[in-house]
Design a protein that fits this description.
single chain; 486 residues; mainly beta; 7% helix; globular
């Protein structure tokens, strides 16, 4: 048995010093539904700084050998570099090229840029990630594999901060969460294996998690092998993610290794990114069930453009109790080489409440032609999870409406030997290719499909249940009369 991680106390102080949190700004307008970025503009990564601090400076003492624990040295560089700056001036902390820095949880500061030109390796030691409270919009930890008594705590992210403003991560290097790397002190177990073996002490750390913050960005760096969700801005306003590759094993060797998960966050631009992970490439969230409705912070005003979401699903939900709206996906590619479950999936279930609406996917391509299973590239469901909860009260009933797919090409597989040779059909091979499932008390409504081309002979058709007002214009081939969609 390893020692319990230290309870989170003093390390929060640096992060909260510079600004206070505020309610999100979710202006409503057509500008978000046309593929153009809204007028407020993306956070701009500064090019000049009043002070630049290398963590290799003897004042901080980092080794950068990939073996020494550099957590305290890097944190000291952040704290003291910030302290040397005058109020409202910008500074940077540099992890130089050709060096590997091993670290536990770090608290970022306002007005700082963390420039990662070398490699930042997330420690495999849980004791280097303080235990902090579960997120307000969830009430309990979203991970699994830990004791029930620890449901209200979780490990702090590798890179995080509270009430930040103008905080950026950039550089030519990479950040590796080491989610699969074994720890000899813990029986050669990894974050991933302990989760599977129900041997976690607390929920796993995200990789980047600014909270209640304004104007934050990740630009240029590589993100690898996150121990849990990768980029998870929470209750933030103004988020920019650009020119970032997020990669983890596609076989979900690291469970729940989502790529980009904006959560109860407004005004987001993601562009020129590549994501290939084992779980959701993107999962837009806004809290869950009663806690999410009470927190009441939606995810809104997002643009995702000029990006490839290779593996797996680009999802909205199922944690969407605070609402998700004004989301534009433009000129993106989904799937690719042997990607089985890529696509756009909107999902919720009874008990969530909230609404998903005003979603546009345009000028985009779905590449499912090399899938070894029969894929479902586009779907929406208010019956997510396979369970059958009974109808609930109005506030806990989810809704979904005003969703459009415009100028879209879907490449489905041509049946190939690996499918035909199955002795036991894969569950997905017997399903439909496009599925839309509402509830008797909450119909999916106002879905529009305009200029959608479906290519490939392995097309299992459409299914619509509890839907209303679905419109198909220039869709080839059209859904059949028996699909329930017309």
């Amino acid at each position: 048995m390893f020692l319990l991680p230290r309870v989170f106390k003093l390390s929060l102080v640096v992060s909260v010093a510079c600004c206070s949190s505020s309610r999100l700004e979710c202006g409503y307008g057509e500008t978000f539904l046309t593929g153009t970025y809204p007028a407020f503009g993306a956070p701009k990564v500064p090019a000049e700084f009043s002070l630049s601090c290398s963590v290799l400076d003897p004042s901080w003492g980092a080794k950068g050998d990939g073996v020494t624990d550099d957590t305290k040295s890097i944190q000291r560089a952040i704290n003291e570099c910030c302290g040397r700056c005058e109020s409202q001036t910008l500074f940077e902390v540099v992890l130089p090229a050709k060096k590997l820095f091993l670290s536990g949880a770090l608290n970022l500061s306002s007005r700082m840029t963390l420039r990662v030109d070398g490699g930042l390796l997330g420690s495999t030691d849980p004791n280097l990630y303080p235990v902090i409270p579960a997120l307000e919009g969830y009430g309990t930890c979203r991970d699994t594999g830990y004791p029930t008594a620890h449901a209200y705590g979780r490990h702090q992210a590798l890179l995080s901060g509270w009430n930040l403003s103008d905080t950026f991560i950039t550089g030519t290097g990479f950040i590796d969460g080491q989610g699969l790397v074994p720890n000899p002190r813990l029986g050669n177990s990894s974050w991933a294996s302990r989760m599977r073996d129900n041997a976690l002490d607390f929920g796993r750390p995200r990789l980047w998690e600014p909270m209640y913050s304004r104007n934050v960005a990740v630009v240029g760096v590589g993100i690898r092998n996150q121990a849990f969700w990768g980029l998870h801005p929470y209750a933030c306003n103004g988020v920019y993610v650009a020119d970032v590759n997020v990669t983890a094993p596609r076989d979900e060797g690291i469970p729940n290794d989502d790529g980009i998960d904006p959560d109860s966050t407004a005004n987001v631009l993601v562009e020129r990114c590549f994501v290939s992970v084992g779980d959701n490439s993107v999962a837009i969230k806004s809290g869950m069930d009663r806690a999410g409705r009470a927190f009441g912070q939606p995810s809104c005003n997002h643009v995702y453009r000029h990006s490839t979401f290779a593996s797996e699903t680009f999802a909205i939900g199922s944690e969407m109790s605070g609402g998700v709206f004004n989301i534009t996906v433009n000129n993106c590619s989904f799937g690719g080489s042997e990607s089985d479950f890529a696509g756009v999936h909107l999902k919720s279930t009874r008990g969530r409440g909230g609404a998903i609406h005003d979603i546009v996917v345009s000028q985009s391509t779905f590449h499912c032609e090399t899938s070894h299973n029969m894929p479902m590239p586009i779907s929406a469901s208010l019956y997510y999870g396979g369970a059958h909860p009974p109808p609930t009260n109005a506030s806990a009933t989810p809704h979904m409406h005003a969703v459009s797919f415009v100028d879209v090409v879907v490449h489905l597989p041509v049946p190939h030997p690996r499918i035909r040779e199955r002795t036991v059909p894969h569950p997905r091979t017997q399903g439909v290719s496009f599925q839309f499932i509402g509830l008797a008390e909450s119909l999916l409504s106002d879905f529009r499909f305009d200029n959608v081309s479906i290519l490939g002979s392995a097309n299992n058709g459409w299914q619509c249940s509890y839907t209303d007002g679905f419109v198909f214009t220039a869709v080839t081939p059209m859904p059949s009369q028996s699909s329930g969609c017309l």
